[in-house]
Every structure is written in C-alpha cells, then in structure tokens.
C-alpha cells in the first residue's frame, strides 16, 4: 500500500518534470510491457517512462529513490531470463528512445553509445570505418546494447571474441540513490577495484546505465564457413574437441542435433545434410593466409571424426544459408511443438558427450522431447524442452527436465547460465550453484550501491538480504563462513 | 601499543600451532623482508610466517583477525609499487614455499597452482603439453603467480594476450576474517556478480589467495621478431600506429629511446642500430601462414615511417639477442646513472608523440634526464627518471618530474599505472585520477570483506574509510554523490 501511494507521488512528480508525453499510465498500454522475451513471467508495470535523455533516467530514479518505489530498466525487451520483468507497484524505465551513437573514435577503437542503441545498428555505423561491435546475440537485429551490458550477453561468436564484458571499457550509471557516476572510460584497466566488470552482468541491480563506451573490433579480412553432417552428437563433439585442441580458435562452432535440424527444416527449408544425427557449423575469420591454412585443418578434423558430408560456403549467400538454419532454430521449434522452454547452461567442453547422453536419458525417462542447439566450442548448451501446454502435466514435466538439465551442468562443473542471465527465471536455481554465504557476499556489495533494494529487486538473488548488517570479525559470524562453499581445511 | 601486544599474542599462538620453523622472529632475519622491488619504501615486519600450506595461511589470518593485527602477503617480492611493504606491528605472510603446481588439465586448458609458483615455472611445466602461461612480466623468472594476481601484472606480450585478469578463472582466498572461499573455477563467466575480476588487482586488500586456477594458452606455431631503428620516437610512434591501425595485433611492440638504448649498450652490448633516436622491437606469433603475411606488412610499415635499419631474427638466438637489450633496459640504467625512479603510466596510443615531447620538455626544464622504455602497442610508458642521490635536491626534482609525468598521463585520458599497481607508492596519486566519492565506493566494497582493515592496510587508498557507515538514501548523502566525478546533468 505504501509503495502504491509512493508510486502515485512519483507519477505526479514525473508528469510535472518530464511531461505526460514521456509517460504511459493507461493500463492497456502498460500491459504491452508485462514481460520480456521470457513470456511465462508477467507483471504489468505501475508506470512506464519512455526516457528521451540520460537526464530523464536520472530524474526518474531520483523520484523513485525519494519514495522508495522500485524501478526496472528495459531496453528492447528481448532478454530470455525475465531480467526486465516489471513491478506492479514500480516504474519501468524504457530506454528505446535513447538511440544515439554519440561518438565513433576510430583511432582509439572505441564507440560511445546511449543504452537504447541496437546492437546491429552500432556494427552498421562502424562498418564504413572497417570496424564492428563483436558481441552478437542471435537477437542482434533488435536487442539493445544497454540490455547486452545488463545481461553480459554472448552470441555465436563469443568463443573467439568473448562476452559483452570483454567489449565494454566504460559506463555512466545512475546509481539506485540517483547519483550519476562514470566508471572506466576509453582506456583499459584502470587502477583500484574493477567495478566495471561487476556492473556488466549485474542485471540492473546496481543502477541504470545512461552511456556505454565499447571497444570496436577490426573487421576480419576473410570469413570462411562450413557445414558438416555427422552420424551423431558424439562424433560431432569429438570433432569439436579436436579442432579446439589443435590450438585453432574458430569464430564459431555451433552444433544442432536431429530434432533441432528437423525443426529448422520445417521452418526454413535449410536443406541440411539428410540423415544427420548432428551438424556442426564452423566459421573461421581473420587474415586470409591464416584462415585458409586452418580451414583445411578443420575440414580434415571433421572427416577424421566421421563427418559424412561437408559443405563449404562459396560466397556470402551460401554462408547466410548455412546460418539461416542455425539462427532460426529457436523459433523453428514452434513448428514441431506447441510449446517449449529454452534452457541455457554451460558445461566444460570435454563433458559434452556425457551430458548430451544424460539429457537424452532424462527426456526418455520423463517422456519429454529435447532438441539441442548450442555453442559447442564453449560448451554453452541451449536445450529446447518441448511440451504441449494443453496436455495436463506436460508443462510441469518439461520444467522438471529443464531444471534437471541445470543440475547436470552444475554437477559437471558448469553453470546455470551461459549468456541469458539469471533474471527472475533462475534466481531460484542460484542456491544450487552458490552457498547462502556466496550469495550474501554478492548482496553485501549490492547494499553498497542500493541500500533500499529498489533497483530491479527480485532478480538474481532468491532471498533479499537486509542491508546495513556489518560482517562480524570472527569466524562464523561472517557471511562467507559456511562449510558449504569451500571449507576445505 | 595495542597492536604490538596483539602481535605478541599472535606470535605465541602461531609458534604453538605452526611450529617455530615456519616463523622468523629474529630482527636481522626479518629485516630481509623490509621492502619489495620498490626499494625506497621500507618497514621491517613484526613477524614473518613462511607458509608451507594453504592451511598455514588460514591459521595465520585467523589469529591476526582475532587480535586485530594487520597482515601483508608477499610472493617473491618483485613488485614495483610497494604492494608487499610490511607493517612494523604486523605479520608478513610469505608464500614462497607454496610452489606446487596442483593440476595441469590440458583438456580444459587450465592449471591449478599454489600462490608461490613462479610464473616461468608454470610455463615450463605446460610446455611439454604444447601450452604456456601467457602473462609474462619482465620478472617472470622470479615473480610468483600469487603476486601476479594481486597486482594484475602485465608484460611485454599483454598487447595481444591481455593482463593477468584475463588468464585467471578461479581462486581460493582466505578472507580477512579468516574464512576460506572459492570464487570462480575452471569454467568461464559464472552468473552473479563478478567478484573474481575485483579480486585480481586488489593488491591483497581483500584477503590472501591460497590457490589459483589459470588459463593455459596454446604455444604459437611460429614466432617472428624484428628490430627496427628509427631517427626519432615520433617516427617509431607513427609506425606503431600504422601497424595497429591495420588490424594486425602483434604479440609485442616495444619502444626504447636514445638514452635507454645507450644504457642497454653499456650493459649488455646489444648492438642496436647505431645513431637510432628510437628502436622498435616487434614480435608476431601465431599460425605460420598468418605470421608470414603480416610480418611482411609490418616491415613495410616500418620502412614507410622512416626506419633506416631493419633486422629480422633468423633464429631463437638472434631473437634472444634482440630481446636482451630490451629486457636489460631497467637494470642497465644503473650503468649511466647512480640512481633512478621507474615510472609506470598509461596513455592512449594516439597521444604517444605529444606525451613523449612533453616528457622531454619536463626533463629539460628541471634538468633531469629521462630514459623511455615502453610497451608502445598499448601506450604503457615506463619512463626512467635518472638522478644522483648524492647531489642535494636531485632526488626531489626527479620525484617532481616523475609525478608530473603521471599528471600528463591523466590529462591525456590515461592512467597512473599500467601494470605495476598502486601499492604504497601511488596511493597518494589516486585522488588525481579518482574523486573522493569514487575511492569511497571502492572502500565500501572493501569493508564488505575486511571490516577491520587489517588486510594490507595503507595500500591503494590514500585515506582509509571507516567501515560500518550505511550509504544514505538521498542525493548528496551517498558516497557517490560528488560533483567531481561525472555530475553532468
């Protein structure tokens, strides 16, 4: 009730300060923003602010801070973990109108962008200078760089080029108490604590970003792409290990299994090798001399490990065709199943065969089909768990399988998320990977930034920590002191 | 006095628990540890513990925490910023006996090492498997990986391969309250806040590391190295910019100016091109096909920008000869000057010519000679400021020039340290780069780990912050709220 009254006062103050044109108060219009790419978590925001300047964001956060009203930032709303799930009694700050590329500094290989700038828009702007923005989530045509920062997004090419965190050198952020601060800048690696790496991937819990300084990457001289058909995922996995083990780092190695191939065929007729139990898409980029030499090796490794068909893209059109099947795979699953869950987990690459068999076994046991599409090079799995929501019990079984897959990832030394983030979806899984003490330590850091827990509360952490507690001096009193983590002595 | 009594009790407890053989209490023997590589800051530690196991470290830290006695960790003591400067009333925890390489996991491309393992020792152990540890400070024959982690060390090859932080995926740390926790592991990029990036480079202020998981890098197929003589630093700088601007990322581009060349000649007779105003050492590594193609381009860029002599190393012996001059440069300066200060600052590469001229001008104005040896590729300067300590006023003038060089770095958008760290030496310069509020924010994070400020106190931060203060809700009360940082609205 207190928050509702606070929200009323925030709405009134923002109407005066920003003007009604930047606010959405109508319930039907607000409901457009009830979820992000994770459509099964929904909440209609109490107020939507369409920020048109960094100042709008600062003003909004300050009003929220004054009234203790929660706020959530949203870019394009393509996130897959519910990181931009709104609060019914809170404010949703939409950054889509903040689309200015402020600076492209070719000499320093940096760009400064507003948070609503679309990922691909930056690459298009940098291309005439011979550069691009390397992180490329599959949603790159619509996702925002602010969202990429919040979720530390990956993409097909992060095997070679790293995650978003490796491409951000500075950010301006409105902290949850309404201050505007700069962290980092154009230069790499400043002294003192590395707060920037912590900000990236903090999913909006440490504030709202108003400006982002990113690295630009030189466009490669050559790109070569091949599609290889294998009898099964084991042989495709063995080829992957052989390629990486040789010291070659391809720009991408993507794998799809039979069910995923079937879905892609149904949707885009990509004409992948008939009868394949798995396909690999391998892409190399870099100086022509290097790429040619390594490409021949990659072909040899594929054949050696059982590839029965190899197709090398002769030009950009053929390359696009190869990628079309892979990139359509998520949506394509809708062609073969009424509903599905997209999972995102990580395992050491060497555990691929074992984990894929265990996933198949899980599916058989529970009578649930699982399609696998994944970044094989870095062990980032995206199992698609199929179900029919109209059949009683199927959704629950699918969710059980999906959760069990995460347990498999953890027990093999991996992680509950590779690139989609924790958000509202996976907060409940965090205790499977971290002890209470680990999570408490992270939240102590959060308290330093957001003492009133109003900045995207309910995300990442399953149980909010009360701020203001001082860690004790002695063993056992400190939040880190739990046998569960690593009490090895 | 309280700390002295506390130290007495800590000494007694540790004598009982660890045995006298692991402690150094004799004043003369303790004085061996009075400084690290920064020889002009000295303090004899109150007690030295030669830890022989991770457990020894945990026990020591817990005794210190119980008594509120400060402790400092020390690896090989090669640090150049006084990060391992002891406390007279505190304990120095030496990790040199912790030299076990616990695991080399070739399939996962990871190694697990104890903190006292010597940087080059790991590379030697990994080489038979076709791998090495990429960070290579000039001190790599003696420096410890624990020290590399604490200072986030760089090296000649970090232009291409990144800093230590880019090669560490996990650490076990004894926190300042004595708990043992694991952060990260063999897998990259776990969910939640990135505490590992913050731990790396925190210079021992967040605890003592007992185990480190690092990435192993595949040995390159080919390494090519050349030495180019230029008329002056401007032309060598222009060649550097042309090489980087072409999209080629050499493993290293090192520059030395006339005075540095003169010193190296005096010391090791490296026979660098006669009459050169500057030399570049450029090294390329990677697949042979790529290296050959790019090497030809590098040669062309050097000639185009005025190189009057190019020497390409025909074999490992000639390559070693080229590097000998560069690697001896710091020590060699002792041949041409009784005393010198080693500075470490960073500027954007594009500002090289301007800053080098300004440094020369500074030297002329104050009558101080400055030799320049630096990582040209990433703008990491190491000016060597020469003086004679026996001439009254010379040391003070040298320190003024050295400090003024850091101001130049800051005003050109750079940093007060590239790879040597802040330590005790540069804590006083931190306010030139960060506002009080910035430093306060970092210290709030520190308080979460070290509420009693006993973990390497006096390093990094010029003014200790009292822990336990809660940031206020409203603007102005929050430590981040200072116009100085980035109050742009």
From TrEMBL, chains A, B:
SUPFAM superfamilies reported in the protein's UniProt record: FAD-binding/transporter-associated domain-like (SSF56176), FAD-linked oxidases, C-terminal domain (SSF55103)
Alphabetically ordered keywords of this record: FAD, Flavoprotein, Oxidoreductase
The FAD-binding PCMH-type domain, residue ranges: 41-219
Cited InterPro entries: FAD-bd_oxidored_4_C, FAD-bd_PCMH, FAD-bd_PCMH-like_sf, FAD-bd_PCMH_sub2, FAD-linked_Oxase-like_C, FAD-linked_OxidoTrans_Type4, Oxid_FAD_bind_N, Vanillyl_alc_oxidase_C-sub2
Required cofactor names: FAD
Molecular function in Gene Ontology: FAD binding; oxidoreductase activity
Domain of life: Bacteria
UniProt-recorded name of the protein: Glycolate oxidase subunit GlcD
Gene behind the chain: glcD
């Amino acid at each position: 009730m207190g928050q509702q009254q606070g929200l009323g006062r925030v709405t009134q103050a923002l109407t005066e300060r920003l003007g009604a044109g930047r606010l959405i108060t109508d319930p039907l219009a607000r409901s457009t923003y009830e979820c992000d790419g994770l459509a099964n978590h929904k909440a209609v925001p109490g107020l939507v602010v369409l920020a048109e300047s960094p100042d709008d964001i600062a003003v909004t956060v300050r009003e929220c801070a004054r009234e203790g009203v929660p706020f959530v930032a949203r870019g394009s709303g393509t996130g897959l973990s519910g990181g931009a799930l709104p609060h019914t009694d809170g404010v949703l700050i939409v950054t889509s109108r903040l689309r200015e590329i402020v600076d492209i500094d070719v000499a320093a290989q940096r760009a400064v962008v507003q948070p609503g700038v679309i990922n691909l828009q930056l690459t298009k702007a940098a291309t005439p200078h011979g550069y691009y923005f390397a992180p490329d989530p599959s949603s790159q045509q619509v996702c925002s760089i602010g969202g990429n920062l919040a979720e530390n997004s990956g993409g097909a090419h992060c095997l070679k080029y790293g995650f978003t965190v490796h491409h951000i050198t500075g950010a301006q952020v409105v902290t949850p108490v309404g201050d505007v601060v700069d962290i980092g800048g154009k230069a790499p690696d400043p002294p003192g604590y590395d707060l920037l790496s912590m900000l990236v991937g903090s999913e909006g819990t440490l504030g709202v970003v108003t400006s982002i300084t990113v690295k630009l990457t030189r466009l490669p001289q050559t790109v070569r792409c091949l599609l290889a058909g294998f009898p099964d995922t084991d042989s495709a996995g063995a080829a992957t290990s052989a390629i990486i083990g040789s010291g070659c780092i391809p720009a991408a190695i993507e794998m799809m299994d039979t069910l995923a191939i079937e879905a892609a065929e149904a949707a885009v007729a990509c004409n992948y090798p008939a009868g394949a139990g798995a396909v690999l898409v391998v892409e190399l980029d870099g100086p022509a001399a290097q790429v040619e030499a390594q490409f021949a090796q990659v072909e040899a490794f594929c054949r050696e490990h059982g590839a029965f068909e190899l197709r090398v893209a002769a030009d950009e059109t053929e390359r696009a065709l190869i990628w079309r099947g892979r990139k359509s795979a998520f949506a394509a699953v809708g062609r073969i199943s009424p509903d599905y869950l997209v999972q995102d987990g990580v395992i050491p690459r060497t555990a691929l065969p074992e984990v894929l068999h265990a996933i198949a076994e899980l599916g058989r046991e529970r009578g649930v089909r699982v399609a696998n599409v994944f970044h094989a090079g870095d062990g980032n799995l995206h199992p698609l768990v199929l179900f029919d929501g109209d059949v009683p019990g199927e959704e629950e079984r699918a969710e059980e399988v999906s959760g069990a897959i995460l347990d498999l990832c953890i027990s093999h030394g991996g992680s509950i998320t590779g690139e989609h983030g924790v958000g509202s979806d996976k907060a409940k899984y965090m205790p499977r990977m971290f002890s209470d003490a680990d999570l408490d330590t992270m939240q102590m850091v959060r308290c330093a930034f957001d003492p009133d827990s109003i900045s995207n509360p309910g995300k990442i952490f399953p149980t909010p920590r009360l701020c203001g507690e001082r860690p004790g001096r002695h063993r056992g009193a400190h939040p880190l002191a739990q046998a569960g983590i690593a009490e090895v002595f």
